[in-house]
Design goal:
Elements: H1 9-35, H2 42-71, H3 77-108, H4 114-138, H5 140-145, H6 150-161, H7 164-179, E1 187-192, E2 201-208, E3 214-217, E4 224-232, E5 238-245, E6 261-262
Antiparallel strand pairs: 1-2, 2-3, 3-6, 4-5
Helix pairs in contact: 1-2, 1-4, 2-3, 2-6, 2-7, 3-4
């Protein structure tokens, strides 16, 4: 869907619901890896929680604050309990996200048993989040299909159009996330020493950072990274020139950027 389209509100909410199910399935995959004792990069978990919260926040705004005021005056009385329950479920989901984020901070600092606790909280978040999405599709959304008048639907759709660009942007980030394997290994990038005449080469690591940025860790053994001016292009891509030097050709400490080196980030959501 184009960011400029005015969506049918019930169809759009159901589509968002399906996207949220996909995110919860991914979070469950990571939860099971953690419970099995595998170390998952902190930045990867942070990215999943961040996208889940951002997407859920927009979905809650649309469902509870933009659709419900139009839906309640025309809904059948049996639908009220479903709408009321959904508000409570959404509040509980937000609380579970906060609990998981607190556990992630402990996991990132190496607190004993933090991996197992994080895995348990992510599993709870994923399973109960999936149940909320199923309930939303089976009950409140279904009961409104035949009762929401066309003029009310148009008013809600017009409100949705104000945030359609944000939703479309998050959709892209979610799809990129879901295409990558859960708990994936750090990506490698070949590098070589910038010193004239030096042919030494090795591999650096690209890792997800906890605040949504990318990090670049130089090869082991004393390699260093320095960066030059960052260039932000018109298509929202970022280009930064990095210089690697092997242990035999290091620059003075005051001229080095240190390690690991964070890469520039974009503010529109997700990682660049």
């Amino acid at each position: 869907m184009s960011a400029n389209d005015v969506p049918d509100p019930l169809e759009e909410l159901q589509r968002e619901n399906d996207v949220i199910k996909g995110i919860t399935e991914r979070i469950l995959e990571v939860a099971l890896l953690l419970k099995d004792g595998k170390d998952v990069p902190v930045g990867e978990v942070a990215e999943e929680l961040r996208l889940f919260e951002q997407y859920l926040t927009l979905h809650i705004q649309r469902m509870d604050r933009e659709l419900q005021p139009e839906a309640r005056p025309v809904a059948m009385t049996t639908c009220y309990e479903h709408l009321d329950r959904l508000v409570r479920d959404h509040e509980a989901e937000s609380q579970r996200i906060r609990e998981a984020r607190a556990a992630l901070e402990e996991y990132g600092t190496g607190v004993p048993h933090a991996r197992a606790r994080l895995g348990e909280l992510l599993e709870k978040l994923a399973n109960q989040g999936y149940e909320v999405s199923v309930y939303e599709g089976d009950y409140p959304l279904s009961c409104l299909i035949s009762t929401l008048p066309e003029d009310a639907a148009q008013r809600v759709g017009a409100k949705f159009s104000a945030t359609q660009g944000e939703v479309a942007d998050l959709d892209q980030h979610v799809q990129k996330l879901l295409k990558s394997p859960a708990g994936h290994e750090d990506q490698k990038v070949a590098v070589r020493c910038a010193q004239d005449g030096c042919t030494r080469s090795d591999e650096a690591q690209v890792v997800p950072g906890p605040q949504g940025q990318l990090g670049l860790i130089p090869p082991a053994g004393g390699w260093e990274i320095s960066s030059q001016k960052v260039e932000v292009r018109g298509d929202d891509t970022v280009r930064v020139h990095l210089t690697f030097r092997c242990p035999d050709h290091l620059v003075p400490a005051e001229e080095s950027s240190g390690t690991p080196a964070p890469l520039p980030t974009l503010e529109s959501g997700g990682t660049p």
